[in-house]
Amino acid sequence: MSQKSYRSALFLAVLALPLAQAAAAQVVLEGAWVRALPPTQTRTAAYLTVRNAGAEAVVISGASTPIAGRVELHETLQSEGMMRMEEQSEVRVPAGAAVSFAPGGLHLMLLDLDTMPAVGDAVELCLTIDGAPLCTTAETRRDAAPAAHHDHQHH
């Protein structure tokens, strides 16, 4: 890449950053919580609602938390009478709409936990929305989920 091409690409990237930040500013994370499981478990799930007050759809392309080695976007699906989990590469949130990550549907899988958070612990959750991180604090609590949730299959 020539110096001029590099400068042009850098200039365009710098111009695009405020646009991504402006889109993320229209997104609100609400009601976040993490499911408390027995301390021997190395994975759990997190839930929240993503509300997009902007005029354009936004895309959630990933998630992270300091307590997990990795976080995956998953959806619970019924196929041939069986419940299964399917990893999602992205989740779109339409303009003026909300998408709920809830037991039995879309959710965040927190994998490779060093320790399970205890009931009442605060956990930072970050979503990557249109390429920019947006974080919130989730409370750890013990709520029931559909029975299939704990025994789901990963791909």
Please explain how this structure is put together:
With 155 residues, the protein is mainly beta. The protein has one domain: Immunoglobulin-like (Sandwich). It is built from one helix and ten strands; from the N terminus they run αββββββββββ. Strands 1, 2, 3, 4, 5, 6, 7, 8, 9 and 10 form a ten-stranded mixed β-sheet that branches. The longest helix has 23 residues, at 3-25. The chain is globular, with a radius of gyration of 18 Å. The N and C termini lie far apart (38 Å). Mean pLDDT is 83; it is low at 8-17, 19-23 and 145-155.
Describe, in short, the structure shown.
This protein is 15% helix and 50% strand. The protein has one helix and ten strands. Residues 8-17, 19-23 and 145-155 have low confidence and may be disordered.
Provide tags for this entry:
globular, 10-stranded mixed beta sheet, Immunoglobulin-like, 155 residues, mainly beta
List the SSEs and their pairings.
Layout: H1 3-25, E1 27-35, E2 44-52, E3 58-64, E4 68-79, E5 82-88, E6 91-93, E7 98-101, E8 106-113, E9 122-129, E10 132-141
Parallel strand pairs: 1-10
Antiparallel strand pairs: 1-2, 2-7, 2-8, 3-6, 3-9, 4-5, 4-8, 9-10
User: How many strands, what sense, and barrel or not for the largest sheet?
Assistant: 10 strands, mixed
CATH topology: Immunoglobulin-like
Helix content range: 10-25%
How many discrete structural domains? 1
**Averaging pLDDT over every residue, what do you get?**
83
Total number of beta strands: 10
Structural class estimated from helices and strands: mainly beta
Order of helices and strands: HEEEEEEEEEE
Name the CATH superfamily assignment: PCu(A)C copper chaperone
Class in CATH?
Answer: Mainly Beta
How many helices? 1
Strand content: over 45%
Q: If classified by CATH, what would the architecture be?
A: Sandwich
What is the distance, rounded to the nearest whole angstrom, between the alpha carbons of the first and last residues? 38 Å
